[in-house]
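Dear V.,

Thank you for sending over the compound details. I've combined the ligand you provided, S-adenosylmethionine, with the protein sequence from our construct and run the structure prediction for the complex. I'm sharing the raw inputs here so there's no ambiguity about protonation or stereochemistry in the SMILES, which I know was a concern on your side last time.
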Amino acid sequence: MRKEVKANERSWNLLAKDHYETFKKRLSENNQILNPLIIQELGDIKGKTLMHLQCNTGADTLSLARLGAKVFGVDLAPDNIVYAQKLFSDFSTEGQFYTADLMSFGEHHDQQYDVVFTSEGAIIWLPDFKIWAQTIRKLLKDDGFVYINDMHPFFLMLDENQLSNGIFAYKYPYFNRQMDKEETIGGYAAKERPGECYAWMYSMSDIINALIDAGLQIEYIHEFDDLCYDLGNMTKLPSGQYYYPAWKGKIPFMFSIKATIKK
Ligand SMILES: C[S@@+](CC[C@H](N)C(=O)[O-])C[C@H]1O[C@@H](n2cnc3c(N)ncnc32)[C@H](O)[C@@H]1O
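Below is the predicted structure of the protein with S-adenosylmethionine bound, written out as structure tokens.
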């Protein structure tokens, strides 16, 4: 395992208990915590086998199980998987989980699925999109599909603090495959804890070409002007997404892709 991925593993472990507690509360209060748009785009997944990549502590995996899928999840951080299993046991739900670095998971996992799913802050943690896309291809049954819903790279290059002040300024070059080191992962659903972590910026073409090169065919790509978490001072939509009125219709914050195996 790359030393940067090992550092990420340590830092994600530190957040696992908080994530479990936050999401258990949300799942006790709401039957569904998945973004309604994701539910709509996924379509009917009842009875389908679904592999959730980078499943964290299994909260979205549990929502996917509540939609009727037979769910599986994989994540880098062992503590995330311990808490994902606990979460599923708390809600008496069936699910199977694996601890693995996605950069090598495909080498030793031979099961295939109807759906491969990944969402909301996942792919920035991956150093190699070619391996990621080839792994997706390997995990998919011939008539299966992958659904990806993640941060738009255009948004990722911007200075978040300036955006919230109504100022459009970029912080990272768009064409930047360099590694970015931070001293904390931040706290989207956990107390912020110090922990070295590494992320890799991507462009839309990095993602799309990696999928195409792995033998997948893009069914659609959608872009959205709202975000799955609050950057501060954002307005909450009934869907649970957040937006800045000043930037509505102007900046893509998220994207989704559905792809199938090229016939
Ligand atoms: C922002 S979270 C994903 C959140 C996701 N939307 C969910 O269902 O909760 C990113 C996840 O990616 C995992 N991760 C990071 N690098 C990974 C890797 N190389 N292989 C597998 N999982 C990884 C982390 O442990 C973390 O749980």
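A first observation: Residues 3-261 form a domain with the Rossmann fold fold (CATH 3.40.50.150).

Warm regards,
I. M.
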